[in-house]
Amino acid sequence: MSIFLKTLLIFYLLICSPPRSKAADEFIDLQCLSDIKTKYPCNVSFYNRFMKLNFPTTGRSNKIRYQNIIHWNYSDSSLVKMDADLASRIGIIGLLFKKVEHQHVFTIVYRDEFNDRQVAILDFDDKQYVLPIKAALSDYSEIK
Fold it and tell me: What's the number of CA atoms in the CB half-sphere (13 Å) around residue 16?
């Protein structure tokens, strides 16, 4: 009897396994460029078959299917700036101090539902977003 129950349990686990989760990874407070001069705050969600750019200030969203991605590129840069905030607190001596600002940029080239070539540019300061976004896009060709 116990062999029958073990066999039944193994059969159930193999055949009736729970479905895969379809939860999304969401990254908030990124900057998305719709054209060269305009930068909007956006939230990016990654699903199984597409990624979605949500623009909370305008209320619109943009859906990018992974199969429509032509290529993507990642770049990072550092910019040394004078710390004007520190200078306003401690005076003119604060202008002698510099701060480093890091920029991480993902450029994603894709085709939209009308088969037109589009570009999405994700720009953010927080390095913790880099590896998850690269992992989500890793199955698609990266330009190096």
Answer: 5
